[in-house]
Write a structure and sequence with these properties.
This protein has 164 residues and is mainly beta. Helices cover 5% and strands 37% of the residues.
Length: 164
Amino acid sequence: MDKRQTCIKPQILRFKLASYPIASQTTYSWFSSLGNSFKRFEYAIPHEQLTFLKLLSNEGTQQLSVACQRQAVVGDASLPNGATDRRNAAVLYSDNDNELKADDHVYNYSVLQDDCQYKKSSVAETKLEVTSKSHRLPLRDVALHSLGVMTSQVGLSIGAVCFS
């Protein structure tokens, strides 16, 4: 049986690969707090219509890709437990004000690819996916740990949120 979906694109699909200096390199930084041009992720749908769509849907799914250079996103191969050490993994901010974490049992996301764990000098990519109850989506922000190391760069590609 076909699964019918309604997908909504974000207003800004990509944030280019760049360095984003912050005050502290030992904490998380929300992407929306990095400067005047950044805001929480917005979508091409009126708020009332999005609310109605979520009420009529059972679940939603959305992907987020992080392009990186010398920046871990989920796993960190330089830590003792490497890729399985997710204490500094990205945090995703949901539409209903929950923080989704890689290893949380309820509010979580899947890691489809994690090439950023190696902190290479060449550009790599980490792909994340959220499949959740519809009221948690769309994603509104992402926090990365230790963002702002002078040599690191990140960029984001925000996928459409699809409800079914």
